[in-house]
Amino acid sequence: MARSRNRKGQGHQLREEILTAGLEVLAATSDARQVTIRAVAVAAGVSPPAIYLYFPDRAALLRALVDRGFGLFDTHLTRATENVEEPAGRLRRLCLAYLDFAHTHPGVYRVVFSAAGLGPAELGVADGEEHPGRASLTALVAAVAACGHPGDDPFGKAVQLWCMLHGLADLKLTKPELDWPPIDRLIDQTLTDLQLTGTPPTVHSPRRAE
Fold it and tell me: Is 31 helix (H, G, I), strand (E, B) or coil?
C-alpha cells in the first residue's frame, strides 16, 4: 500500500524511514548488488522518485545505509565502554559489546561486516577518502595499543582480534544450534593468547651454564 504523504516539516522523518527500510532490504539480501532503488521504495512504502529527493543516486543511498549501520555499531560499543578506564578491562568490554551487537542487531551487523558489493566503488568513496568503517577499526587499534607492550604491532593484533570476533559473531548467527562455550571464556583466552590482558609477558632468563 502506498505511503501517505508527509506533511510539511516531516521530510527528516521520511528520510529516516527510507534508511530503516533500506537496512532491512540490504540485511535480507546480504548483497548490495541486489539492492535497487525500487526495492527500497517498496519496502518504505514510497515511490522511487521519493528516494531521489534525499539520495541523488543508488551509491549515495548505499553510502547512507552503511554510514547508519556503522553509526549504530559505534554508538553501541561507546556506550558499553564509556565508564571503563582500565585499558585491559575496556578492551574486554569492547569485545563483549561487539558480539552483543551482532546478536541483538543481526541485520545491521550483516550490512556493515558481511554484505557483498559494498566496496569503495559501490559506495562512491573517492580516492583519499576514508571508508565509513575506518573509524571503527581505528578505535579497535587504539584499544589494543593501550593494552600492548613495547615492540608490539597494534594494527596486526587488532586485525587478529577482529578476525576472531567477526568469525565468532558470524558463526553464532549461522550456527546457533551448536553448544557454544561461554563467550567471555573465549574472549579471555584470545586476549591472553594475544598478550592483551594488561599483564606484561613473562620473560624467562636464559639458564647459566654450570
Answer: strand
Rounded CA gap, 64 and 140, in Å?
23
**112/67 Cα distance (integer angstroms):** 9
The Cα 118–Cα 123 span in angstroms is: 6
Distance from chain centroid for Cα 167:
13
Q: Which of 75, 92, 70 is nearest to 23 (CA)?
A: 70
Q: What is the pTM of this model?
A: 0.85
Identity of residue 53: L
Which candidate, 94, 74, 95, 98, places its Cα nearest to that of 84?
94
pLDDT in tens, 27-74: 998 889 888 999 999 999 999 999 999 999 999 999 999 999 999 999
